[in-house]
Amino acid sequence: YSNRGVLYKEKKQWELALADYNKAIEINPQDAGAYNNRGLLYQEKKQWELALADYKKAIDLNPQLAIAYYNRGLLYQKQKKYNLALADFNKILQLASPEYPDGYFGRGMVYALMGEKQKAIPDLQRAAQLFKSQGKTADYEQAMNLLKSLQ
């Protein structure tokens, strides 16, 4: 159900996706990934509190689930809760391999939004380098564009 929910979400069939995520959680209430995916759906629908609750549940179930910290960090960033966002992006960099560019990119974005260019630039440079080496062209270009705007 969780995988089908992802497909429905990609097709913007929100209600079908939500029904599948709910069913996946009903079948396996310990499925951290299903909570994370449902959180993404709620975030897409601008239901921030429901999204935060699902990310928290995903993290409670699996404290090693870096993607849940990333998604929650992005939501905190949107809400201008920069210190909470930084905490989540820092946690990603502790949990995930140092080759995980999203943690650097997220933290660099938050530093940029806070006006802390000197902290943002090294993180964005590292993210860009990793995105490029991993063949993630669109992400690389996004990091480079943000870097250019800071210099």
From TrEMBL:
<keyword id="KW-0802">TPR repeat</keyword>
<dbReference type="InterPro" id="IPR011990">
    <property type="entry name" value="TPR-like_helical_dom_sf"/>
</dbReference>
<keyword id="KW-0677">Repeat</keyword>
<dbReference type="Pfam" id="PF13414">
    <property type="entry name" value="TPR_11"/>
</dbReference>
<dbReference type="Pfam" id="PF13424">
    <property type="entry name" value="TPR_12"/>
</dbReference>
<protein>
    <submittedName>
        <fullName>Uncharacterized protein</fullName>
    </submittedName>
</protein>
<feature type="repeat" description="TPR">
    <location>
        <begin position="101"/>
        <end position="134"/>
    </location>
</feature>
<feature type="repeat" description="TPR">
    <location>
        <begin position="1"/>
        <end position="31"/>
    </location>
</feature>
<dbReference type="InterPro" id="IPR050498">
    <property type="entry name" value="Ycf3"/>
</dbReference>
<feature type="repeat" description="TPR">
    <location>
        <begin position="32"/>
        <end position="65"/>
    </location>
</feature>
<feature type="repeat" description="TPR">
    <location>
        <begin position="66"/>
        <end position="99"/>
    </location>
</feature>
<dbReference type="InterPro" id="IPR019734">
    <property type="entry name" value="TPR_rpt"/>
</dbReference>
